[in-house]
Amino acid sequence: MRRTEALAKATTLIEALPWLASFHGATVVIKYGGNAMTEEHLREKFAADVVFLRYAGLRPVIVHGGGPQINAHLDLLGIESTFTAGLRVTTPEAMRVVRMVLVGQVNRDVVGLINRHGPFAIGMSGEDAHLFTAVRKHAVVDGASVDIGQVGDIVNVEAGAVRALLGDGRIPVISSVARSEDGTVYNVNADTAAAALAVALQASKLIVLTDVEGLYRDWSPDSVDNEVIDELSATELEKLLPTLSSGMIPKMEACLTAVQGGVPQAHVLDGRVPHSVLLEIFTDKGIGTMVLPDAPAAPVTAQLKGNDT
Q1: Is the CB of residue 228 less than 8 Å from the CB of residue 216?
Q2: Of 144, 198, 257, 289, which is most buried with the most CB atoms under 10 A?
Q3: What gap in Å lies between CA 257 and CA 199, rounded to an integer?
């Protein structure tokens, strides 16, 4: 029995070898959220996975949101949470809570979990060193633009501070808060922030953790045998986007933004699966849904026909 278990472990390590070689030194941006962030046993496994990546020679960067934690704190303070077109209406009062929870609570929790394994993680906000610059985002309801407060779209990324931390062997942990040119602070979608940062860092991968197995083909809530799409191109994803559920749209848009911006691979993984990040990176089959850039068109070669005479 012991020999069988040892051989199985050896087989797993050997399977990981080509991927260890391929991704050595590569930057991987991971959007952290969902159940992986709220269930204690998954939180601990995620932290161990990130440190494993660091020891394996990769350069992980974590971008996180914190919707459940924000909701809990707003409820505690008696501040009503309202949503328009799926986006949180963020008043100045609510923004102060969002900023406090993301930067002061969630970020510190993630940093602390990782640093149980060594002095690697350093917390940042998108405000730090002007990492993320945003402009006000409006919701669209029945074709009309609606002001939803301090919700932003990222328009610029200054990734120098993140590169410096990576060069020093650190693991940046970044909360999805941004500033505008006039200093207004905005809440930004963490999927969007992760994609923008992956493009700016010229990352080798973007990984988005969520609470489903991946992107389903012809999803039916009544079916127990929904098929996960293993792989699709940017063009294929663009065609599918209008048909997706509201929860999946920002995640798949993030993947599309990443690969169209030069990131070679973007993945949506089930964060409820222990060690899902390692399973994706270091196994032959991987898990979840992978989005790839469109294949370059084959070069057209002109054949000149000579005169018969």
Answers
A1: yes
A2: 198
A3: 8
